[in-house]
Design a protein that fits this description.
By secondary structure, the protein is an alpha+beta fold. It has one domain: Tetratricopeptide repeat domain (Serine Threonine Protein Phosphatase 5, Tetratricopeptide repeat). Helix content is about 50%, strand content about 15%. The protein contains 15 helices and ten strands. Strands 1, 4, 5, 6, 7, 8, 9 and 10 form an eight-stranded mixed sheet that branches. The protein has a two-stranded antiparallel sheet with strand order 2-3.
Length: about 400
């Protein structure tokens, strides 16, 4: 009985301040999505000072997203690296026991598989944009290793991750491994036009010309009326990575409320037509984040923990002195709020140098969404293997920006 009381007392600090921190996080996310990047980042600092808070890795991921949008790739890399490490810290038995007794919202945040993968994916892209190819490759490889699943054949399925790994290998002139990466991309999504182009280029540079021509023909056939990039890498283009829409929603089970599952978020923008001066290309989806989130390897383990949590709380409820501390049996629905619903790629043919680039978004019926249009100035284009990577996000009424992120 004494031990139970001590455990209950240990939970008490965890129950304090949770709601306010949760509200602050939501408010800061809203600020970010309204285009107030700097204000949102500054407002995150009080949360990041709570290094003992159970949600600390989530605060790190959120602020890293904000810094990334601000173009501060150095601090983004540092914060993402720390967040990725914190998501994988093993919890001791005592900590798990406290987590089980306390409110689900106060358990130590470790995220889901897709969040751990995307943390290292974004870290790799930040390194790649800085020109640190070795660090980028390590980050992408670590992300691939963490793309696990409880069902055979469903692991290692992030096409966007393999695309960026392949791009890193191309820039390191490791054409064999680049071809392996882009081969995986088109296996996962044969409709990803730019995956076929990159595969053709990697094979061509690796002196596998017959295979290169076969891949290039698929690229040609799937490009429609768009201007083609040359298989020999002599074309220059704007390299755009585009986050589209909102990440999936995490909701409690309708019957028990003790388990959480993902559902697809609604967002009207489904694809973008990208115009760089007179050239036009359509963005192609490389990742559906909902597909990655809905069936993950650690879900069974999380479900087991929540069953244990309910059982512990039921026992605790029978002990009057403990029942008040037992918290809620509601599911833990915390998530990385700034993750996109989809990740798109666009390679827009353009002469080397700066360009004015406009993104026009369309819904699933092909109707243009004027309130989502973005125009960016001085967007750089470059040759194959050196084109700067521009990473943007679809947003409501964010227009006439002055420079790429």
């Amino acid at each position: 009985m004494k031990n139970v009381i001590m455990l209950a007392i240990a939970v008490t600090p965890m129950l304090l301040g949770c709601t306010s921190s949760k509200n602050v996080l939501a408010e800061n996310t809203t600020l970010f999505l309204s285009g107030k990047y700097e204000e949102a980042h500054k407002a995150m600092q009080p949360l990041l000072e709570k290094t003992s808070n159970e949600s600390y890795p989530l605060y790190q991921l959120t602020d890293a997203s904000m810094l990334y949008a601000l173009g501060d790739l150095s601090h983004t890399s540092s914060l993402l690296y720390s967040a990725a490490q914190n998501l994988e810290v093993e919890l001791g038995v005592g900590t798990i026991a406290v987590d089980l007794l306390g409110s689900e919202e106060n358990t130590h945040y470790r995220g889901y598989v897709h969040e751990r993968v995307l943390a290292r994916f974004l870290l790799g892209v930040a390194y790649l944009r800085r020109g640190d190819l070795d660090s980028a490759r390590i980050a992408f490889q670590q992300a691939i290793e963490r793309d696990i699943n409880k069902e055979a054949g469903k692991e290692n399925t992030f096409a966007s991750l393999h695309f960026m790994m392949g791009e890193t290998c191309l820039r390191q002139r490791d054409y064999d491994n680049a071809a392996v990466a882009f081969r995986r991309v088109v296996e996962l999504d044969p409709s990803l036009t730019y995956g076929w182009y990159k595969l053709a280029y990697a094979l061509q540079k690796g002196n596998r010309k017959e295979e290169a021509q076969q891949a290039y023909q698929v690229y040609r056939d799937s490009s429609g009326s768009e201007q083609l990039l040359s298989i020999d890498g002599s074309s220059s283009y704007v390299f755009l990575v585009l986050d589209v829409g909102n990440g999936p929603t995490l909701s409690p089970d309708a019957f028990t409320g003790s388990f959480a599952s993902y559902s697809r978020s609604y967002f009207p923008e489904r694809y973008a037509t990208v115009v760089s001066d007179d050239e036009r290309a359509m963005s192609r989806r490389a990742e559906d984040v909902y597909t990655q989130a809905k069936d993950e390897a650690n879900f069974a383990g999380d479900a087991t923990r929540k069953v244990a949590s309910v059982a512990v709380k039921q026992v605790a409820s029978m002990i009057p002195v403990v029942s008040w501390f037992a918290g809620s049996t509601a599911a833990d629905v915390r998530k990385w709020l700034l993750l996109p619903g989809e990740i798109h790629i666009a390679l827009i043919p353009a002469s080397p140098g700066p360009h004015t680039t406009t993104l026009k978004f369309f819904d699933s019926e092909g109707r243009e969404l004027p309130d989502y249009q973005q125009t960016w100035y001085y967007v750089p284009a470059g040759l194959e293997g050196s084109a700067p990577i521009i990473h943007l996000k679809s947003m409501y009424r964010i227009q006439d920006q002055k420079g790429p992120s």
